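User: Run a structure prediction on this.
Assistant: Running it now.
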Amino acid sequence: MMPVTQRLLVLTALLSLLLALQVQTAPIDTEWATGLIHRAKRSLLWRWNTLKPVGSGCRDHYECGTNYCRKHTCSFYKAQQA
């Protein structure tokens, strides 16, 4: 048989774990949720570092560090207009 203090300690630990799980899984009210999600603002250096180098694949000009995407490849020069 466990002493009363030990029983009380075990009961308190189990109850606190149960309450912590309940708080963690509680849904956020819709009024609060609208202001919680913010897009992080990246610095200019971070944006330059994430741009693709010459020779890598691209779909649009804004993906390349040179701002020129030619035939799905980052290039130094703009595509020639026919």
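The longest strand covers residues 69-70.
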